[in-house]
């Protein structure tokens, strides 16, 4: 017997965390009956439906996308804007993004139909490091950069220590290019961190996700992850 949310995630519908919302919202049926209890377990012979569609287990797939700016990190958008799954027209599996990048943020994003994998990658205790390059207004002082390195309070909770390195500064353009490495994934985190120290982000790109990078890729391009890469990510998490 397996927990219902785990079965939904393994079927490639969504992450386990989101599957819990599906259950409590009454979108899941087991053997024809709506189930809203998160502790529910199902066996191999139970028929599970999400939004009236029976689950069928897909082979897990894993992809890397160089997300362009002005693209939504979702599988659909009610405003008809471009979403990340639009870059995978040939993929039949029900893939979804692992975490998200903001609408105006470009860079490396993973997509999969493996909810268990996605859940591990996004877990707060995950050791997956994410490297960003930010163009910010002005030149932050050494003291302000130390605040980022030691952690800065957002919504009453201190961020984990970040690695911060100034790549260049442009006095004439009143801007700086800064590399920042974090392992958290809070909402708009990088932008909010720089906003807090008085140097708002003008441009943001995620260049690395753990050992993965975008070398040789252009915005909008995709590639499947190698089995070795998937194993490395799982080991990190």
TrEMBL record:
GO terms for molecular function: RNA binding; rRNA pseudouridine synthase activity. SMART domains: S4. Pfam families: PseudoU_synth_2, S4. The keyword RNA-binding applies. GO terms for cellular component: cytosol. Residues 2-59 form the RNA-binding S4 domain. GO terms for biological process: enzyme-directed rRNA pseudouridine synthesis. Residues 223-237 have a biased composition (Basic and acidic residues). It comes from the Bacteria. The keyword RNA-binding applies. Its EC number is 5.4.99.-. CDD domains: PseudoU_synth_RsuA_like, S4. It is an enzyme of class 5 (isomerase). Residues 218-237 are annotated as: Disordered. Keywords: Isomerase, RNA-binding. InterPro entries: PsdUridine_s_RsuA/RluB/E/F_cat, PsdUridine_synth_cat_dom_sf, PsdUridine_synth_RsuA/RluA, PsdUridine_synth_RsuA/RluB/E/F, PsdUridine_synth_RsuA/RluB_CS, RsuA_PseudoU_synthase, S4_RNA-bd, S4_RNA-bd_sf. Belongs to the pseudouridine synthase RsuA family. NCBIfam families: pseudouridine synthase (TIGR00093). This is Pseudouridine synthase. It comes from Marinococcus luteus.
């Amino acid at each position: 017997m397996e927990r219902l949310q785990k079965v939904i995630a393994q079927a490639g519908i969504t992450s386990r965390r989101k599957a819990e919302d599906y259950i409590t919202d009454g979108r899941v049926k087991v053997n024809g009956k709506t189930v809203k209890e998160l502790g529910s377990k199902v066996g191999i012979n139970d028929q599970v439906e999400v939004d009236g569609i029976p689950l069928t287990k897909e082979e897990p797939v894993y992809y890397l996308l160089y997300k362009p700016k002005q693209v939504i990190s979702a599988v659909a958008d009610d405003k008809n804007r471009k979403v990340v799954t639009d870059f995978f027209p040939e993929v039949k599996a029900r893939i979804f993004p692992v975490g998200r990048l903001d609408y105006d943020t470009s860079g490396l994003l993973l997509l999969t139909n493996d909810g268990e994998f996605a859940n591990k990658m996004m877990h707060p205790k995950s050791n997956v490091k994410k490297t960003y390059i930010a163009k910010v207004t002005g030149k932050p002082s050494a003291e302000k950069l130390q605040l980022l390195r030691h952690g800065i309070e957002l919504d009453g909770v201190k961020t984990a220590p970040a690695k911060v390195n100034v790549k260049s500064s442009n006095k004439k353009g009143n801007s700086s290019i800064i590399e920042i490495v974090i392992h958290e994934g809070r909402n708009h985190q990088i932008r909010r961190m720089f906003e807090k120290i008085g140097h708002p982000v003008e441009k943001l790109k995620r260049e690395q996700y753990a050992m993965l990078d975008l070398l040789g890729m252009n915005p909008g391009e995709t590639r499947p992850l190698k089995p070795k890469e998937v194993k490395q990510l799982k080991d990190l998490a």
